[in-house]
Amino acid sequence: MYVSELRFECFDDTTITAAEKAINNLLEALRANGQILGREFAVAFNDGEFRCRILTPEKSSLSSRFNSPWVKVALAKLTEAKILAPREKFIGQDINSETSTDETPSWQLLYTSYVHMCSPLRSGDTLQPIPLYRIPATFNGDHKQMIRWQTEWQACDEIQMAAATKAEFATLNEISDCNSDLFRRGWDIRGRVEYLTNIPTYYYLYQVGGDSLEQERNRPCPKCGNKEWLLDEPLLDLFHFRCEPCRIVSNISWDYVT
């Protein structure tokens, strides 16, 4: 990921309220298209212009060729608020993040966790993030539904990892049960991505707990009951199971993985 600063300059008299609404609308549109990452964007007014630090998957993420219909409308609304299109100042590469892939993978998967800010679509060959704006829009012109699913998955993951409240069990169920609402929505998004990209696309089903390593190794696919989905070697050192008909990858319970 890369760090940049967006600078918004006023070309006529405006108000803080109008500027705030127009700038935040653009930031939300860019986020919904995967062009910027994260959930919170601090906007400061300094020396007659508004400034905002952002994270992008690639140096070219803000190129107009990637703009969604919403981004295009949001840019037009900046003009209505008497604000020029933003100037981008490149800061540098984020040293604490992963590098996105620019290669077409042989397969891909939906995979995220509460510590990841990058795209939830990953290359199955390298596990590198795939910028969402590089695939066709999944729903209604952008990828808002996929990012919303990612946000909810991460929230569930953070709560169950904290293991501090009764909510741990409900949230764990959402990310590890193929009958949960979160799974159904994510699995449908996975199918939509596969249809649009014509690339086999899998869903990562989290697994923790269990009674023994032997029981885990004999665990069938929870969606179809396939008992032959255990792999000889884990994929990408993470995924011990893969069910091709169901397009699911999973792990042996982390309680038994060293």
UniProtKB/TrEMBL annotation:
InterPro entries: UCP029037 (IPR016908). It comes from the Bacteria. It holds the Pfam family DUF2310. This is Zn-ribbon-containing protein. It comes from Parashewanella spongiae.
